[in-house]
Design brief:
This protein has 14 helices and 15 strands. By secondary structure, the protein is an alpha/beta fold. It has a domain of 173 residues: Rossmann fold (3-Layer(aba) Sandwich). Helix 1 packs across helix 7 and helix 9 crosses helix 14.
Amino acid sequence: MTAAGRTVLVTGGTGTLGRELVRRLAARPSAPRIVVLSRSASGADARLPAGVRVVRGDLAAGSGLGLSSAERDELSGEVNDVLHCAADTRFMLPLEEARAANVGGTHAILDFAAGCRALGRMGCFSTVYVAGRRTGWIAESDLDDGGAGFVNSYERSKHEMEREVRRRMGDLPIAVYRLSTLIGDSRTGAVSGPNAFHAALRLLYHGLAPMVPGRPENRVDVVAVDYVADAASWLFDRRFEAGRTYHLCSGNEGSSTLAELIDEVVEAFHRFRPEWRRRHVEKPAIVDPETYDLFVRSVEETGNEVLLRATRAVQSFAGQLSCPKTFDTRATEAALAGSGLRPPRVLDFLPKVVRACLESDWRESAA
């Protein structure tokens, strides 16, 4: 990813994507010096490759990153590249908490980067869902919700985060990499960071998601983590261009329709848990948003806490299923020319992800 003799600072290096990027950095024959900013000692640190330096710091502490003055001065003189992967991806956070993590944390690392005397490039990771409830064709250069608003606080905070990043592109060498939802490894199905998608699979498995809002033909963009990590590594290392934004998602060809996705999940349940068929769990009905809202209100009136928690969990992201959009990936495809990298079709690897979820009981699974 970067040449020997360089130093790269990674935020979020123990997260789902950050860990994969660090592994690729460390595996290069001419690996750079890798520094991972981590808030506190954890088991996740132990899973980083040998030779990775972990420094204790906190983006919430501002541009000093919670480092000692000596350590901050040392890194400011040493760091050549910054990969900012840290984010709070929870959908149900109060907006101010989401802003503090995703906007405030990004502001801190941008200020730190501005003080790095040998900074050559910076990659900031975002989400394609900065488009919010907007529908239709979403270009990589777009940063506009069209006045439609956002489904959850995560989308809104990342939209505001990108505005801050674009404001700083005039004085910092920044490229933005937007991801869709990471669901697992396309080769093994391994899930290194269970998220709302996997929670929805679990609810479906237990019969707690009787309906979802949307239209059967609406496309759902979820993506393999290995493709995103490989593509981001290639773009950052070989095609870095400050001021550019790239969509690292499945796109029109690799994504599936909502109906296809549900059918594939149900088929995988039947295949890997034959006893599930005998439970006679109904496949979720795909309904219009108005019908789904009536369902939510009826659940609230019953006072069934289990079903209410499940419904609210689905509601935190399901609004996107009623906002059909297609993410333009043409600039990314052009930049990846010669790499051999293309997003795998979701329906080709989704069964592996479902199997990994079942075998691990929806916990993190081994790669």
